[in-house]
Amino acid sequence: MKYDVLIIGCGVAGMTAAIYLKRSGISCAIFESSMPGGQIVSNDKIENYPGFSSVSGSDLAISILNQVKELEIPVIFEKVEKVIDNQEVKEVVTDKNTYTSSKIIIATGRKSKKLNVLFEDKYLNHGLSFCAVCDGNLYKDKDVVVIGGGDSAFESANYLSHLAKSVTLLHRREEFRAKKSLVDKVENLDNVSFVLGEVVSFLGEDNLTGIKLKDERVIDCDAVFVCIGQIPNTEFLSDLNILSKDSYIEVDNNFETKIKGIYAIGDCVFKPHYQIVIAMSEAARCALNVRSELSE
User: Rounded to whole angstroms, how far apart are CA atoms 190 and 162?
Assistant: First the structure.
């Protein structure tokens, strides 16, 4: 089946764009390679989304996905491997099929950065995690380490403090990038301690048992949660000349890339602030722009 618009990414931005398009009478489909909802699914509590004093990321994602389903918008669970620009017609090539459309909206968001140190891949899901909300429950009454100094690291440390026996927050600089209110909150938790240092290797046999620091110190632990920032999910776009040097997608004021008919919204686009409401706003504006162009 041919659609007017193909949307890559089923996070809040992609789903919002789809809802606005379908309600305008424009046929669209969403591609998703893993779990609908994107990054917000890993948020235990969202407290800055208007209308809710507090809502879990998974609950919010499910609510939006239910709207998508009610509008009978297809969600195609295939991994997009390439986007091909044939001028008037665009192709989305997945690991299973090739789809065509005149317009494409990219809303692939971001993913967690890796440390890129020894044995990082070996212990993934064997004591090493990038999501405290997803995996924290596995380490009740255990000793865990959180690596990072930004908001996500402190939010993870705060969340884990209610589950784990002890939480060590490891940061390589003396100053933290996290909001002062978050830092103050975590500093007052009895079972959270702070260590200055840099990881050079993960330790263990079948499962992770600790980390080795640059100065040869070893921290014994049952799990490590890496929270050092995010990078955009744009590897599949490397053949197109639409990425910045940091691999974010460059767009104009209408969210259109250098290639006419290809748009980008949400966290895969560089901006000063990354918030759910900002991503949704971009999605709505982009969808309305696309609708106007298709109506001409």
Answer: 11
103-106 and 262-264 beta bridge pairing? parallel
Closest CA to 14 of 34, 24, 28, 27: 28
Report the interhelical angle of 180-187 vs 151-161 (nearest 10°): 30
- Calculate Rg over the CA atoms of the chain: 21
Residue type for position 225:
F
Say how many CA atoms lie within 13 Å of 32 toward its Cβ.
20
**Per-residue model confidence as pLDDT tens digits over 239-258:** 999 999 999 999 999 999 99
Residue 88 DSSP one-character state: T
Kindly report, residue by residue over 155-164, the tens digit of the pLDDT.
999 999 999 9
Model confidence pLDDT, tens digit, residues 167-208: 999 999 989 999 999 999 999 999 999 999 999 999 999 999
CA geometry: angle 16, 19, 21, nearest 5 deg? 110
Does pTM top 0.85 for this prediction? Answer: no
